[in-house]
Amino acid sequence: MVLVHVSAGDHPFAVFFGKGRLPIADCVGACDFWAWPEKYRVLVRQGEGPDDDASLALRVRGSGSYAFVPAHGSAQNVGLILGAAGPIVGFLGLAFTAAGLLASCDAPRGQTCDKPVSLYIGLSGLAVGAAMTAIGWPLYLHNRAYFRVSDSPAPTAPRVGVVTMHRGGVGLGATFAF
């Protein structure tokens, strides 16, 4: 087990192991707890906006400090819109390109036909759709809520407290980290 320090600013939060319903840590602002190197689920109350809770993953790999970074809502929404609309624009560009390539030529024999305008519109749509997708999804992923990991050791203040024992008793427990 490793000592983990998790802080979420002024937000209360709960840490769950896997899909468990009971939190292994329920804190306001920041707290320290022992955890196995594993993936945990964290519910940060009012972490996305004034009325929204953030549910995100916390991957513990070793002792360290994990700080909650809230999402940037407007940039995240723009990224989602660009990322979702890009393939649609690209598909329409593909349809226009196919229509332009399959257009028949009615020019008299010995004269050449100009390329249809739909071919150029379609190629432009393909390029714009690819650019929207390539910009949108990274913008969306970069601006969502996450935990910033600091490999510096977690705070090492010794703690003493009452702990529950295996068969229903209570005892005195101490935590030291160095």
Give the CA-based shape: rod-shaped
Query: How many domain units?
Result: 2
Weakly predicted, low-confidence segments? none
Q: What percent of the residues sit in helical stretches (DSSP H or I)?
A: 25-40%
Strand composition percent: 35-45%
Cα distance, first to last residue? 14 Å
The number of distinct β-strands equals 8
Task: Write down the secondary-structure element order.
Answer: EEEEEHHEEE
Can you name the CATH architecture of the largest domain?
A: Sandwich
Please give the radius of gyration in angstroms. Answer: 27 Å
Mean pLDDT: 82
| CATH fold category name of the largest domain | Immunoglobulin-like
Number of helices: 2
Structural class: alpha+beta
Explain the overall architecture.
The chain is 31% helix and 39% strand. It is of the alpha+beta class and 178 residues long. It has 2 domains: 2-71 and 145-175, Immunoglobulin-like (Sandwich); 73-142. A hairpin with a 5-residue loop joins strand 7 and strand 8 (170-175). Helix 1 (73-101) packs antiparallel against helix 2 (117-142). The longest helix has 29 residues, at 73-101. The chain is rod-shaped and about 100 Å long.
List keywords for this structure.
178 residues, alpha+beta, Immunoglobulin-like, six-stranded mixed sheet, two-stranded antiparallel sheet
Summarize the helices and strands and which ones pair or pack.
Elements: E1 2-17, E2 25-35, E3 39-49, E4 52-59, E5 64-69, H1 73-101, H2 117-142, E6 146-150, E7 159-164, E8 170-175
Parallel strand pairs: 1-5
Antiparallel strand pairs: 1-2, 1-3, 3-4, 5-6, 7-8
Helix pairs in contact: 1-2
